[in-house]
Structure formats: structure tokens, C-alpha cells
UniProtKB/TrEMBL annotation:
CDD domains: ABC_NrtD_SsuB_transporters
Principal location class: membrane
Top-level taxon: Bacteria
PROSITE patterns in alphabetical order: ABC_TRANSPORTER_1 (PS00211), ABC_TRANSPORTER_2 (PS50893)
Subcellular location: Cell membrane
InterPro entries, A to Z: AAA+_ATPase, ABC_transporter-like_ATP-bd, ABC_transporter-like_CS, ABC_transporter_ATP-bind, NO3_transporter_ATP-bd-like, P-loop_NTPase
Domain ABC transporter: residue ranges: 7-239
Family named by the database record: Belongs to the ABC transporter superfamily.
GO MF term list: ATP binding; hydrolase activity
Name the UniProt record assigns to this protein: Nitrate/nitrite transport system ATP-binding protein
Length: 265
């Protein structure tokens, strides 16, 4: 496979005084351009640590990450991150929150009118153009996540990194956002690496699911291809045997092969 993102033999050890914790060992993963890959694994196994290494927020102890042939060693606009708890600036409007990122990334290459249009285009993609003048305190959690996604997309990153983006939302809002993300992925062909705890979400959205072993010293246990044609519709999939089979494989991995142990909590 031609890897656009290449995670090569990543190891991560945290040292505090004489205490050393081995969190990740020998993590190897290649992601193709346009692929949607999810990472699933029990709490504490090191999923966020891995995503933060890819984002350049922390440096791995061993191994390296390459994106489009470039070594990742610091944060950059080519890797936009969407966190579980939106990170919008409360004093700016919805528009302002996206505009600030657009000005930063495209300040030299697009003029003010183009930047305005680009902000509005990305707000429209997540169905938030109507709320452009509202402040984060005036909109729901789901809407805030939509704005966070618009801001990330507006940076035109090479890869979109999402750390449990829908984790704090109720089931219905979550379903709407998943549908939006699928629409956007179909329209733009983004490369996405997403952490989730939700097996149905992973199967619905992903081309492949990366299943991590329990920590400490976690690594990739199995990678599952999801053989479901796109576009995917959640209602139709409910009766699809291929959907059920993928789901069972992830559940087996998590609850039989990698049973949650208190040591991993
Ligand atoms: N800066 C740090 N210093 C020391 N240990 C850390 C640090 N960051 C993370 N860890 C440890 O690394 C392990 C993995 O944490 P991480 O947050 O990556 O797991 P996770 O799989 O994302 O968990 P969850 O699903 O609960 O969010 C945990 O044991 C955590 O305590």
C-alpha cells in the first residue's frame, strides 16, 4: 500500500523521576491518501498519546512519523486536530473562530474576500452558516463540534486527526455528526485518523479499524478492513450481514482477546 501517513516503529516511554511507564511499543501503521482509519482500544492503552505524536504535540521516544514524505516533529497546519471537548475561543463568534484559523493559514495566499468566502464555505459544509454570528456559549455541544470540524477543514490539512470527536454528545446528535462527517469525507476525500470508543461508529465510518492491545506497552493487535460499500446508510446497514460480521470481530477483539483489566484502567 502507498502510505501517505507512515507511523514507523513508534515507541513512547514517559519518565517521571525514577518512574518509567512504557506506553506504546513498536506501533507501525500506514494510511493511504483519502483513507478513513479509526483507532479503538480500551481506556488508557495510549490512543491519545499516539494521535498526539502524529499531531506533533509530543515527540515519541523511538520511531518516526512521516506525512507525505515529511518527518513530523512539531505541530503544523497540515495536521488539524479535533478534540472531544471543542476548543473554541469563547469571545469570538462561530465565524470568528474559523476565520482566525483561515487568516493564520491563508493570510498570505488568499485576500480578505477569498478568506471570507472560504470561512463561509466551510461553515456551510458542516451546516453551521446560519449560526455564524453566535458565540460558543449560545450554541449546543453538537454545534460546537461542527464548528471545530469546520475550523479543522478550513485549514485544508493533509490529515484530519480526531480524538473522540463525538464522545461527549448524546446519541442522536452523534448520529447527525457522523452522517455529516461521512458526507464531507465523500465530497472531499480527506485522510482521517480518528479515535473512538464506539464500535458502531468505528464500523460505520472507517475503511479500516486499528485495534490496540491493552497497556502498558500497548501496540497494534489487529487491523480490520471494513468491506462495506460507500455511501453507507446506517438504517440499511442494520440488516447487513457484512456490517454485523465486522462489528462482531471488533467486539471479540475488545471483550475476548483484550479483556479490560484493572491494570489497564
Ligand atoms: N504526559 C504523561 N506523563 C506520564 N504518563 C502519561 C502522560 N500522558 C499519558 N500518560 C499515560 O499514558 C497512558 C496512555 O494514555 P492515553 O491518554 O494515551 O490513553 P487513551 O487510550 O487515549 O485513553 P482514553 O481512552 O481513556 O482516553 C496512560 O497510562 C497515561 O496515564
Amino acid at each position: 500500500m502507498d502510505s501517505y501517513l507512515s507511523i514507523e516503529r513508534i515507541g513512547m516511554r514517559f519518565t517521571r523521576g525514577s518512574a518509567v511507564s512504557e506506553v506504546l511499543v513498536d506501533v507501525d501503521l500506514g494510511i493511504a491518501k483519502g483513507e478513513f482509519v479509526s483507532i479503538i482500544g480500551h481506556s488508557g492503552c495510549g490512543k491519545s498519546t499516539l494521535l498526539n505524536i502524529v499531531g506533533g504535540l509530543i515527540r515519541s521516544t523511538t520511531g518516526e512519523v512521516l506525512l507525505d514524505g515529511q518527518v513530523v516533529d512539531s505541530p503544523g497546519p497540515d495536521r488539524a486536530i479535533v478534540f472531544q471537548n471543542h476548543s473554541l475561543l469563547p469571545w469570538l463568534t462561530v465565524y470568528g473562530n474559523v476565520r482566525i484559523a483561515v487568516d493564520k493559514v491563508f493570510g498570505r495566499t488568499k485576500n480578505a474576500a477569498e478568506r471570507h468566502d472560504w470561512v463561509m464555505h466551510n461553515l456551510a459544509l458542516v451546516h453551521m452558516a446560519h449560526a455564524k454570528d453566535k458565540r460558543p456559549g449560545e450554541i449546543s455541544g453538537g454545534m460546537k463540534q461542527r464548528v471545530g470540524i469546520a475550523r479543522a477543514l478550513a485549514m485544508q490539512p493533509k490529515i484530519l486527526l480526531m480524538d473522540e470527536p463525538f464522545g461527549a454528545l448524546d446519541a442522536l446528535t452523534r448520529a447527525h455528526l457522523q452522517d455529516s462527517v461521512m458526507e464531507i469525507h465523500a465530497a472531499l476525500g480527506n485522510t482521517v485518523l480518528m479515535i473512538t470508543h464506539d464500535v458502531d461508529e468505528a464500523v460505520l465510518l472507517s475503511d479500516r479499524i486499528v485495534m490496540m492491545t491493552n497497556g502498558p506497552a500497548a501496540t497494534i493487535g489487529e487491523v480490520l478492513d471494513i468491506p462495506l460499500a460507500r455511501p453507507r446508510r446506517r438504517l440499511a446497514l442494520a440488516d447487513d450481514p457484512a456490517y454485523a460480521a465486522s462489528r462482531v470481530q471488533v467486539l471479540r477483539f475488545l471483550y475476548e482477546r483484550q479483556r479490560f483489566t484493572t491494570a489497564a484502567a
